[in-house]
Model the fold of this input.
Amino acid sequence: MPGENLSRDEAQERAALLSVDGYEVSLDLRSAVGAAEAGARTFRSVTTIRFRCAEPGAASFADLIAPSVTAVSLNGRDLDPGEVFDGTRIRLEDLAAENELVVDAQCAYSRTGEGMHRFVDPEDGETYLYTQYEPADSRRVFANFEQPDLKAPFRFEVRAPEGWVVWSNGVGELTDGVWQFAETKPISTYITAVVAGPYHYVTDSYSRTFDDGTTLEIPLGAMCRKGLAPHFDADDVFLVTKQGLDFFHDHFDYPYPFGKYDQAFVPEYNLGAMENPGLVTFREEYIFRGKVTQASYEGRANVILHEMAHMWFGDLVTMEWWDDLWLKESFADFMGAFALVGATRFEDGWITFANRRKAWAYRADQLPSTHPITADIRDLQDAKLNFDGITYAKGASVLKQLVAYVGQDAFLEGARRYFKRNAYGNTRLGDLLSALEETSGRDLAAWSRAWLQTAGVNSLTPQVILDADGRVAELSVLQEAAESHPELRPHRVAVGLYRRETGPDGQPGPLVRYARAETDVDGPRTVVGELVGADAPELVLVNDDDLTYCKIRFDENSLATLRELLGDLTDPLARALCWSALWNLTRDGLMPARDFIGLVLRFAGRESDIGVLQMLHTWADSALTHYTAPDWRATGGRLLAQGALKELRLAAPGSQHQLTWARFFAAVASERADLRLLQDLLDGTAKIDGLDVDQELRWALLEPLAAHGIADESALAAELARDDTASGKRHQVRCLAARPSAAVKAQAWAQVVESDALSNALVEATIAGFTQPSQRELLAPYAGKYFAAIERIWAERSIQIGMDVVKGLFPSLQDSQETLDATDAWLTAHESAAPALRRLVLEARDDLARALRGQRRDAATAG
Done:
């Protein structure tokens, strides 16, 4: 629809014209049950907006995406909905200085996780609702001015089915059958929220007495579907929540500003979580139905703290427009890790950050769609796609560097001033930088230009010259940039020198750091004078301690050392940085993929950090699927399966390492004997001491059995009967689509591409099952169908489903020049296609081209 994709220019014009005094939103959700099962798909939404206009007599518009509008009233004047509403906008003409707009609409329940999402639990038939809006889907639930800089107080009231509980941003109470909620502070439309249904709800409280003697009391709540209640470890959620609130109160000197703090774990959620003030929503997969590793608990804690940081960075102070999305997301990503390490039991959180979050950033920053951290966001479709590795992880990495550059105390004092000056307002880049310049005494203009306003990632490589005595005569750091983004940036780095110790028995010992220097790298070559005269290193690690954002490279001697001694590197962060650097070498076609797999097989069994181990498994699987020469894939798969089974049997019984190796073994198993072992583990005829084959692990074992034609439809139906839950249904759908049959693939394709009957979660599950690396030939006919369908999909479906289909069904497994040419042909023939759609195809094309380069590099090794 013409008005759905709001542009930045339109938003700026409207913000200059209008200011909003308040919203009253009345929702009637009683249709969510009962009649809804018979086909009702809408609910009543009545919105009253009080706003001012700087130019009386001018025209503007309100936003609303709804099937129908019953009535529109502007300043007591009834307007004809058929004339003023076009499906996405309500035209407003002859505005007064002060205005009141009342819109009575029928809004649609969602199955895509956008707007008011409605979920019926197959386990007990209960209905659950929740909202998700970012960046611009509140207009699917109530009429509004959908842009972040038109903040206002909101007052919600909700009518719900009897027996339900309703939550919103403010405290609510049930009066005469209507849930009435306290008025919020001025907030943006996209962070308003409603959660409603028969949720399982647990309460706690937080109390803090400040230095001035005042006490802050925050009611805490956490909720999930009733079916997940037996698995809900709310005590741990509350523990991390309280630790985070203490940490941010200690560092921000601004009390939590939004009253209560509820956290809702909701079904079929598209994101990890969303920072709605007073009512944070999370994907319910953070409630663990089976045994998981500490990495999963750490990941959940990080997300809880990330969303909590948003209460200040994003909710209290909000960017004017999505260009400065980093002002909230980069800060929340950094602060999440900062608080994780500083306040919780997860003291190694920076290792996860270096190994996992930055890997996401490095990939995003080398795509053709890479952009500066402060991006050029022309419209809402641009905004939707910019929730990416650059905005989150690169931005957080740059902030980590900024803390090292200006000092932690100055950084935090700058943040405190920023909150107090801009509370409940909107800001741009300069507002934050000016506060940081005041507290640090540094001119940040050049730093901002280099780090925030340019794209691309630099590579840092050590160069060592030894003297006649075998000591360091000169050590330099060489900086390079891609031709497409040639900016060489200033880096604050630590350079570490490592060598192997000799044990008391004269035997070789661990690889340890014996010298370190911190320096500023600037330009193509920087001499590190502090290390001159040091003993000759076996390994030089640039960016030791992970102070900056860069791709680490190695000199020849260091790389040779890692090939032989990586497992002897005792420092877990240094080891994680080396693994990340080796993976970047593989993705860049500088290391054969089979060599990387060989390093994983040789050293991953000695990896102590479970999060790093899980990342190594992901990378090894990706190396096998995308970067190895096609004629070596079968060999590589056998080697990985053999190595995984060996480590599985060696792992301590009942340990998280054992569970991690079991899951990896299932993911790479393809030989008959390996598949038979998976089946025997499922049947209980085989056992591995300490390995608990719980329900989640059962599904992990079933997927490869389905993909290789061993577990048929009846076996999957029997497993669903055993686990007849929403989670079980998603697993079953994925496994059904994984079966190696042309008819199965045709059905899965039709369910996703030709129909919109599936919910967002089942679309995701079907795509995951459809795209099996072992079924390249079976999937070959769909390459052409993909290019024929995607423009229609983008036009007809919501942007979330469009993104899922375009990214998930791209024929990356048809990794040939022919597929690359077909992609280029589509891009050439569709230059006028939606920019966001073209961006997704360009990104997939780049991944495919990178994979082909990697395969050529790997094949050259074999030759």
